Description:
The chain has 9 helices and 22 strands. By secondary structure, it is of the alpha+beta class. β9 and β10 form a beta hairpin. The protein is elongated and about 85 Å long.
Amino acid sequence: xxxxxxxxxxxxxxxxxxxxxxxxxxxxxxxxxxxxxxxxxxxxxxxxxxxxxxxxxxxxxxxxxxxxxxxxxxxxxxxxxxxxxxxxxxxxxxxxxxxxxxxxxxxxxxxxxxxxxxxxxxxxxxxxxxxxxxxxxxxxxxxxxxxxxxxxxxxxxxxxxxxxxxxxxxxxxxxxxxxxxxxxxxxxxxxxxxxxxxxxxxxxxxxxxxxxxxxxxxxxxxxxxxxxxxxxxxxxxxxxxxxxxxxxxxxxxxxxxxxxxxxxxxxxxxxxxxxxxxxxxxxxxxxxxxxxxxxxxxxxxxxxxxxxxxxxxxxxxxxxxxxxxxxxxxxxxxxxxxxxxxxxxxxxxxxxxxxxxxxxxxxxxxxxxxxxxxxxxxxxxxxxxxxxxxxxxxxxxxxxxxxxxxxxxxxxxxxxxxxxxxxxxxxxxxx
Length: 431
């Protein structure tokens, strides 16, 4: 069974002493050797470092604490979490750039890492020389590297500068070559940390496509990203780190949906009750509360793969004919996309008795494309007046989670709505 495991992590922890040098000074030779060799280390155990006693004046912080998991050969594992959650620290330990304070990690295979722009490159060497250097570190002979060389250079789009020292490269050129080397020189385990945070959109698509190719070839990938669409399209399983610990691990869609709902917040959010208090008074109608819910959780960030419920609680102050409670769904340009009334299925204009009511509407799963919207709550008496003035606007953010266009993960959804409409296709003739 152990032969199927590519990475085994047990009780891993990393403690930093704030404001103190973490290790002794290195010689220039030691520093260069560590920088060049660390991202491409071969099979072996990464042991805990020698813990040092902290003085009473030292302030310490645990970047990782009690982290344990296994990664199977050929598995693509996503690692997500907010900034400071410990994602990069974990990958640096697995890439042998830093030592753990406690615990250990067993890595079974050659590791290729792309943790930051140009990790493992020697600045004084040319692009060509760095390609051959990194291949040699991975244990490849010159002929093997030569077979991959043209493909690496073409992917990186640095043909004109391949014999220029990389210290003269722009950050974009540096990144393209670094990723091309890490992905094409056939490491058994590819570790990628936020490669999509740098580079233009076209290059990001190339990176995602190449990582998909690497995964389909049966190699192991550990992928850190804030791009939930990329994580869902590439990774079968995902670990969510929070405050240096594993908060949740499991099937990627379930983990990322919960992460989005718990981690993201609107840029501008006012207290709904204070907004309700500002609505004009009406003799027949009073709005009490409004909630946007998904899976029973209240929030203004939702995912498009699940239904969204709009719950409106209100009081009818006197018996009224033609009272309609409704909401408008608007895009960021205030274009009206949907208007939905609480009594759309009524056979005739109803009369409503005085009392307190709750009306709930369900926006279907997979209707909204990922973007910002506004849900504007309104009420009125048909052909008489509005009871809520301009209404109560609640901004919501829709994040992608459904499997719409899963075969085309880089396609940009241009429409405001994204319903899954049934299609049927049949072949009518053969050549």
